Amino acid sequence: MKVVLLAGGFGTRISEESHLKPKPMIEIGGKPILWHIMKEYSHYGYNDFIICCGYKQYVIKEWFADYALHNSDVTFDFTQGGKMTVHNNFSEPWKVTLVDTGLNTMTGGRVKRIQPYVGDETFMLTYGDGVCDVNINELVKFHQSHGKIATMTSVSVGQRFGVLDIDENNTIRAFREKQDSDGSRINAGYMVLEPKIFDFIEGDSTVFEKAPLEKCAELGELKAYNYNGFWQCMDTKREMEKLEELWQSGKAPWKSWE
Fold this sequence. Notes:
The protein has helices at residues 15-18, 33-43, 57-65, 67-70, 107-113, 115-118, 136-146, 211-218, 237-248, and strands spanning 2-7, 27-28, 31-32, 48-53, 72-77, 83-89, 95-100, 123-127, 130-132, 150-155, 163-166, 172-176, 186-187, 191-193, 222-226, 231-233. The strands form 5 sheets. Strands 1, 4, 7, 8, 10, 13, 14 and 15 form an 8-stranded mixed β-sheet that branches. A two-stranded antiparallel sheet has the order 2-3. It is α/β, with parallel strands linked by helices. It contains 9 helices and 16 strands. The protein has a single domain, classed as Spore Coat Polysaccharide Biosynthesis Protein SpsA, Chain A, CATH 3.90.550. The two termini are 23 Å apart.
């Protein structure tokens, strides 16, 4: 099953860092947060990634182009014209497809543009700026059990975001703006989707969290995987520093790999 990562936005709320690079390339522990997310999926055996690039896409492409070099011991022999010998390759067994989904394309449009790379298969989708310690295998099993078009991981956090109305059968019925008294769950990404979802996306101007998911909710085709563990996005410099502190402490909850 392929994993699609949204990594094309401008990251304006963390402009201290994102003016130099795409937000998913901002580093935690010396590695882009995008790498941390991929390591999560890889831990559960999912190694085929499609990355939706946009803003400063060349940074992402160049990082992956040099990935094996940066993670290996190498010798450059300039007596032989600069011949490079790779001694140890510590790269992960990843297949990474980097797709230019446009500079100003909305999230739905980015998903639509990678349809040729997904084909007629179930796939996973998440945001390139949030980490979680959810069990991916359990998430996929839950999605397969209900047979609906879409599963979204939902978490309960402080109310900075719009919230989800979820009924007693874990079906998401509507999206709405947060209220001060809310304790409702929010969209944490980590979705599992059937290819039918592409039919609900009109084009580049479609916001994935609006018409496509709202239509699924109206049809009763959007299920919530309610998760009570760790989840943290990186929208601000303060959140970046929080993640860095967790990583440096050796107690990063999302680090499921050795």
